[in-house]
Amino acid sequence: MMAKSETNSLQSSARPTRAIVLAAGVGLRANPASKVTNKCLFSVHDHTLIEGQIGIIRDQLGITDIVVVVGAFQDQVRAKLGDGSTMGVALRYAEVRRIEDGMAIGLLDVREYLDIPVFILLADELHYRSQHSRLIEFLDRGPDALFTYTKTNNPYQVMSNFSIEIGKDERVISIEEKPKTVKNDICGCGTLYITPKVVDALEKAAASPPHTGRVELYEVVASLAAEGRVFAVDLDDPDYININTLEDLQRGKFTYRTREFDRFTISVIIPAWNEAQAIE
């Protein structure tokens, strides 16, 4: 007979068939643009931020069943993405009732979609040739949760996101959201893998909120790390940007154009009738 712990491990190792994209935030730091639209609809060259995230879910994680969690400007998000058929995925929408209470409480608003292990991505992040497929490799370890990160030499990036202390075998020891002092070059990214065990922990935290009154998703997930089944996955994406401000967006556009410069070069032929010397 299989032990209970072994059963839970196998359930945790199940490859997700569903992904969640969080696109409900109001994006106050991106004002004034975010006063008229959702940050996830900001464009970087030929696609919006959320379309880029959906592409990662489809192409790297092999998932086509995607739930988009909406709130602010949800009509615009729905109108832009539709049912997802033009992108080769099936989109469903779930509305958050308590936008101002943060991601953790927002997820509890849509708990009906968290009855199985899922990948969660933030809609307003910009990845450039990231290695999200590495998440699949970690599922054999039977994790309760997976964090993601990339290495950076930009302290601001870590201070704007969160830092992760990683121990042996990529196990998470601790995290710190928006650290005032940067201790390493590890910048936490918004992509997560969570199991129903994490959702149970979120509910318990919401029932007895901390003294700050706000339940933080990453802190709750990290609280399970003591059991040794929370791992950190390197996305190897040095150009990653969490789009918090309009300056971040411009930096993302510059990075994209720089990396894809060859696609934008144009050869110009100037006809010159026996005037080669004049051109020189």
Structure description:
The chain has 280 residues and is α/β, with parallel strands linked by helices. The protein has eleven helices and 13 strands. It has helices at 4-12, 49-59, 74-81, 103-109, 134-138, 155-160, 196-207, 217-222, 246-259, 261-264, 276-279; strands at 18-23, 43-44, 47-48, 65-70, 90-95, 118-122, 125-126, 145-151, 162-166, 172-177, 186-194, 230-234, 241-242. The strands form four sheets. It has a seven-stranded mixed sheet, sandwiched between helices. A two-stranded antiparallel sheet has the order 2-3. It has a two-stranded antiparallel sheet with strand order 7-13. Helix 4 crosses helix 7 (196-207). The longest helix is centred in the C-terminal third of the chain and has 14 residues, at 246-259. It is globular and about 80 Å long. The model is unreliable at 1-12 (pLDDT under 50).
